[in-house]
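Thread title: Can someone regenerate the structure for this chain?

I was given the following input by a collaborator and told the matching structure tokens would be attached. They weren't. Posting the sequence so someone can regenerate them.
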Amino acid sequence: MQKVLVQTVAALSLLPGAAWAQNPSGAERYGWGPHMMGWGGGGYGMIFGPLFMILFLAVLVAVVVLLVRWLSGPWQGTYPPQQLPPARTALDILKERFARGEIDKAEFEDRRRVLGE
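Best answer:
Regenerated them for you:
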């Protein structure tokens, strides 16, 4: 019985076109077309491909920029650094007040002695 069954299946597989084993319905017949490989078409999901590509490129550029900035060390401006004016001492302020006439010579001398100069 088993031998007969095997011979029958072998004979049916040799028939032209093997009509009993194929799906004769249109584009799905050869596995290509709008429903390729059994996927239901879903063209709506393909909008995310370009979005993810742009996102990936933006992240890649950001990583490269941060890596270059990190490796190059602290940022140095192209302009020469501004020179800060020297810090004013108490004696400088006292001299300015004397020059403006806010204090007289006696008070200037007295305060200068207190400052130790």
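The radius of gyration is 46 Å.
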